[in-house]
Structures are given as C-alpha cells and as structure tokens.
Amino acid sequence: MNWIQINEQDNVAVALVALGKGENACGVTLVEDIPAGHKFALSDIPKGENIIKYGSPIGHATADIPAGAWVHTQNVKTNLSGLLEYDYHPHPCALPRDHEATFEGYVREDGHVGIRNEVWIINTVGCVNGTAKTLERLGQEQFGDRVDGIHCFVHPYGCSQLGDDLKNTQHLLAAMVKHPNAGAVLVLSLGCENNNLNVFKEVLGEVNPERVKFLITQDVEDEVEAGLELLDELTSYAAKAKRTTVSADQLVVGLKCGGSDGLSGITANPLLGSFSDLLTRHGGTTLLTEVPEMFGAETLLMNRCKDQATFEKMVNLINNFKEYFIRHGQEVYENPSPGNKAGGITTLEDKSLGCTQKGGAGEVRDVLLYCEPVKEKGLNLVQAPGNDLCAITALMAAGAQMVLFTTGRGTPVGAPIPTVKVATNNRLAEHKKNWIDFNAGILATDAGMEETTETFFREIMEIASGKKTKSEEHDFREIAIFKDGVTL
C-alpha cells in the first residue's frame, strides 16, 4: 500500500511514497502531488475545522481544503497556546511481568549493570579539553586493548557559571563518573575553576579509589605523563571485570527521535513503543524525554501516570518547561524544525503525537528531574529539551545504558553510551548504511509489528552483550549540558 490512514477517525491520510496528481488514494482522487511522508485530505475540510491524525487534532485548517489536497503548513495552523490546567483521568495500563530474557553484562560493585567496560576521562572544566583528548589518544594506544575503549567527552563548562547552570554541570558530570558503562574513571581538573575538585567531590560523594582517580593538571609538572600513569592503573583495574549473564530487568534504555519525518510516528517510533512495552514485561526500564515534543500529546501520558502524585510531577514537568520558554521571550510552540516540515510534519501536535509513540502503552512509573537517577522500573519520563545532544546526554545521566534513536532524515550523532539508530524509511536505511543500525521502514511495507519487535529485541540484547553500534564503530560520542543562565 502506498498510503495509510493511521486512525479510522482521521480526516487525513499519509503518503508512504510520493503520489502524483490524479492518482486514486484511500478512495479520493489527488488534486495535487503529495510528497512521501506528507498528508492529504480524505474529505472536504472547511476553514477552521480540526485536522485529525492519530485520532487527535493536530491543528486546524486556515483555508478550505478540498478532498485529495495536500495538507501541510500552507493550510494548517497549531491549536496550541500558553499554559494549561490539567485534570487526572487515570487509564489503567500497567503491564504484567510475564517474559524472561538475559544479556551478558558487567555487574558493578554497587549492583548496577554496565553493557560496556570502558575507561572514561571526565573533565571538571572545559579548559582541560585538549589535555583530555591527548590522554584519550595516547591512553588508547598504550592501554586500550585492556578494556572496551578509553574515551573523553569535551564540554565548555565548569567555570564562569552561576546558580543552576553550575549545579547542572556538576550533577551531569557526577552521573557520568558513576555510570555503570564506565569500568573506571579519570577525573581531570585544571585546579582554579569554579567546579574545582574540592567542590566537585562534595557533589560526587564517596567513590572507590581504585575505580575513580583524580588529577589536578596545575599541580603536576607533566600532566600527560601523570595522566598516563593513572590510566595504566585504571585500565588494569577495569580489566578485572568480566561479562556475566544477567536478567533483562537490569536494562535501562533511553528513547529518542531526531531528524524526524512523516513516517516517524508510523514506523520507527511505534516500534520503540512496542519495544518499551516488551522490555517492561521483561522487568526492564525505559526513559522518555524531549519535553517540548510532548506538548499537544501530554494528556495521553498524564492519564497513564501510576497515581495522582506522579500525575502532578508530570504537570510540573510540562508547565515548568513552558515557563522556561516564556521566561526567555520565546514562542512555546516554535516547532517543528525546517527538516521536520520538509519530511511531512506540520505542527507541534503532529510532531508530539508521533514522538510520544516511543513510550508505548505502558504505565508512567515516575517523572525525573534533570540528572536525577532512575529508581522505578518501567516507563519513566525525564526532564530535558528536544535538542538531540542535550536529550541523549540527559538519558545517560538518568541511568540509560544505551539510547534507541529513531530518525527519518538521518543523523550521525552519538551519546557516550551505545546509540542505536533506527531508520523510519527504507530510503534512509539504504542511503546511510554507515549510520543506521536497524530499518523500521519495513513496517511501511509488509512487515508485522509483533515479528519486527521480536527481531529488534534480539538485536538490542546482542548490543547489550557487546555488539557494537554504528556510532561506536565510528567513535561518534558527544555530550551537551543543559544551560539556562548567565556566563561570566
């Protein structure tokens, strides 16, 4: 089939391939060309009437739209505006634990499980980025065969920051030091920064001195020589860890989309939702973020919150993010991006209803603040923006051992943790084989969701057990720390 009506209540359908004027699709004759991933009207839609997709309004018509016409930004506008009040209408959706699966992971001394055994170099401040990169290169050459890799993660922060910005930097870096994918960590400091080691250690708390070592570069004559000595010790310590069979209930997986297109909410995002439900039934945990891309679909998640207290936390999550936009004088609904629109996404409601498909149908167990560690198994929501780098970094900080990242336009971006790229369409999967790990575009042809989910689940268990993702093969690893204030 070359088109799809997602919900029987929809008054638009989506072209799965480019359709031409005069073609018959879903019982209507097209009155203009429809690009792949874009919508066309299934009946006459009067000016002011809602456009229905996914069974929900995604905006309203700004002009009369005849049946068979292209429905997009030229004739549709969002219905969203400002802050809202919400009421809790619970929809029971707890999923039973009725599946068992295992993977090969590294059980750490605190009980957490890593899926990689790497040595990480964590900077307290951006001033030592160059030193960190030198240590990464030389350390990999000399000791890299002992572990899964030695990696540093450059950033521009740790000094000249005030208030919550400095706290965000500290909590994010502390979460990285404690992350189970890191078998050992070198914390690298300049010495005079706001986030100096004495200050950072207060945030970090107690650590195993064999696993975590510290270096103040101003205090030694040759910081590279001193750093390599410490990396020798750290890689020797990390090398003692061995993979062992653990339950899938120890897996924490982040869910993200970026470079979305009109098929994201039809193929790849629903696949992640199906995976999320399946992992939950195995006792595992998934993390959903991109708060601004919940706007317009938030009530679907709110009514799945496990209780009133969790619902209230989600209301605060949504409204606090809207207030963040307003505080900076920005339009709350300045979304989707130019690339999203080119791919067929018209309004923020359109984007959000597709984006939240990644959360499946399960109960929302908890809502986490930025860098707050996950505590509840099952589906959790995480405070972070839609920006790809900020979002994947926040998922890692919350405890995700890997990120599943759907894309319709394509992107090479990778987190410090394995980042699994899932294509929404066949063209992207073929065109960017060096980026894409799994093709969900088959769901737009003849593949079934249940069978595809099972295949995808097995692939994720293999990656958790050590199979490298494309982002790992190409060493695509970045972090971005959320910033909201003054830089001195």
Short description:
Helix content is 29%, strand content 19%. It has 488 residues and is of the alpha/beta class.
Can you walk me through this structure?
- It is a single chain.
- By secondary structure, the chain is an alpha/beta fold.
- The protein folds into 3 domains: 75 residues, Roll (Archaeosine Trna-guanine Transglycosylase, Chain: A, domain 4), CATH 2.30.130.110; 123 residues, Ribose 5-phosphate Isomerase B, Chain: A (3-Layer(aba) Sandwich), CATH 3.40.1400; 228 residues.
- The protein contains 13 helices and 23 strands.
- The strands form 6 sheets. It has a 7-stranded parallel sheet with strand order 19-20-18-17-21-22-23, sandwiched between helices. It has a 4-stranded antiparallel sheet with strand order 1-2-5-8, with no helix packed on it.
- α11 links the parallel β22 and β23.
- α1 crosses α4, α2 crosses α10 and α5 crosses α12.
- The chain is globular.
